[in-house]
Amino acid sequence: MRTDRRRFPVTKFFSFLALAAFLLWGAPQAEAYRFVVYGDSPGVTPQWPNKAYTEDVPFNKEVLGYVNAQITQMQPPPDFVLFLGDMVTKGSSAQGTSTLQSWKTFMRNTLKVDGVPIKLYVVPGNREFYGPQGWPTEPALQKVYQEVFSDMPSNGPPGYDKLAYYFEYGEGSELSFFIVLDAFGFKSKGATVINWDNGLDQAQLDWLKNQAQSRQYRYNHKFAFSHGPAFSTGPWTVDDSVKRGMWNILADYGFAIFFGAHEHLYSRGNNLDPNQRGVYQIINGSVGAKLDDLSKLKKELRDSEYLRNEVWHIFFNDNFSVVDVNGSTIHQEAFAVIKGAGGYSLQSIDSVVITK
Fold first, then answer.
1. What is the distance between the alpha carbons of residues 279 and 285, in angstroms, rounded to a whole number?
2. E strand or H helix at 354, and its extent?
3. Which of 103, 236, 296, 304 is most buried (CB neighbours < 10 A)?
4. pLDDT for 108-163, tens place per residue?
C-alpha cells in the first residue's frame, strides 16, 4: 500500500485556488490508503419537481467539476471515490433519454490522474429513477441505471444486481469492508412492485447481516453507504427498517461510519439516538444541489445551538469527505466549497479520528 501520502503535490506550480486548497488541507502525513465520499449533484432549476421544464439541467457541472479538480490534485490522489446518489436532476430527459451516461462520462473525464480515471463506486439515489416530469419514479429507469453502471460489483442479494453490493480494500491492519445499500429502488411485494422512500426490505437486511456476520473478525474497519440518512436532521422520511433494522446490524458488527446524503448539507453525528450505539453517521449531501437551510432542520435543532454545532455538526455548504485509513486509525475530514467573488475555494469544516 502507499505511504508518505500528502494532500497535494508541493513540487509543481499551483494556481491561486489550488494553493489555497493545499494550505487548507494541512501538513504532509502518512496514510495507508484514502478515499473520498460525496453525493447529490443535480442541476438546480426553479421548475423542480413536477412542472414543465424549459430546459434539462441534468447535473451541476460547475460545482461537481470544481470538486473533482481538487480531488485530482491530491498527492497521491484517493484510491477510489464513492458517490452517494442523486447524480442527476432526473434520470430521464424530456426527450426520454437517460441522463446517467452523460454524468458517468463527465466523472470519468474530470476524475483522471495521469490520464487514468480514479475508480468510481456509486449508490442509487431517488432522482435516478425520476422520469421527464419528475415524480413519480419509474421502474424502467432502475434497469437503465443497472445498465449504465454495469461496472459495479455483482455480489448483492437476488434482485439487487449493481444496486447493493460490497467490496474490500486495504492490506494487513488496513483491510476494510465496504457495503452499499439500496434504500430508494423498486422491490417486489407479491405481484406488486413498490418503490421505497429510504427503506430496506427484509431480503436486503438479511443479506447485510449475513455479510457483516461472516466478516465480523476478518476486517479491522467497516463502512456502510446508502443514499438517505438513518437519523434525519429535518423532515425527511426514514423507515424503521433503516433507523432500527439496518442500524442495529451496523452497531452489532462494529461498523465505524455510515455515510449518507439526500439532505443537502453536511452533518456528522455520534449517539444521535439511543439506538445509534457509537456508530458515526456522516451526511455528505451536496456537490451542486440546492442547499438546505436552517428552516429545514427539526425544531429542536433550530432552537439549540448546542445540538446544531456540538452533536450534529451541521454546515449548509456543498461538501465532501476525505477518509484516510492507517493501521487501526480512521481520519475523516470534511471540506466545504465556498463560492466568493473570485471563484471557489475550500474550507475545512469538520474532522474526527476513530481508533478501532
1. 19
2. strand 343-355
3. 103
4. 999 999 999 999 999 999 999 998 877 788 999 999 999 999 999 999 999 999 99
Nearest to 93 by CA among 44, 56, 41: 56
Q: For residue 233, count CB atoms less than 10 angstroms from its CB and return exposed for 0-12, middle for 13-18, buried for 19 or more.
A: buried
Q: Give the C-alpha separation, 295 to 47, whole Å.
A: 21
Residue given cell 429507469 in the structure block: 141
Instruction: Domain of residue 88: give its range.
Output: 31-355
**CA geometry: angle 142, 268, 305, nearest 5 deg:** 130
Give the residue, 133 or 41, on which the prediction is more confident: 41
Contact present, 332 and 322 (Cβ < 8 Å): yes
Label residue 27 exposed, middle or buried (CB < 10 Å: 0-12, 13-18, 19+): exposed
| 131-141 exposure pattern, b = at least 16 Cβ within 10 A, e = fewer | bbebeebbeeb
**Cα–chain-centroid distance for residue 129?**
17
Tell me what pLDDT residue 46 has.
Answer: 56
CATH number at residue 199: 3.60.21.10
Q: Tell me what percent of the chain is helix, strand and coil, each rounded to the nearest 5.
A: 25, 30, 45
User: In terms of Cα–Cα distance, which of 308, 249, 311 is closest to 281?
Assistant: 311
Q: Is residue 124 part of a domain?
A: yes
Tell me if 15 is assigned to some domain.
Answer: no
Neighbours of 70 (CB within 10 A): 24
Alpha helices in 220-298 (DSSP H): 240, 247-252
Specify the number of domains making up the chain: 1
Q: Is residue 46 part of a domain?
A: yes
| Residue 250 within a domain | yes
**What was the pLDDT predicted at 5?**
43
Closest CA relative to residue 300, chosen from 209, 234, 350: 234
> The cell 452533518 sits on which residue?
267
Region of 277 on the Ramachandran plot (φ > 0 left; ψ -120 to 50 alpha; else beta): left
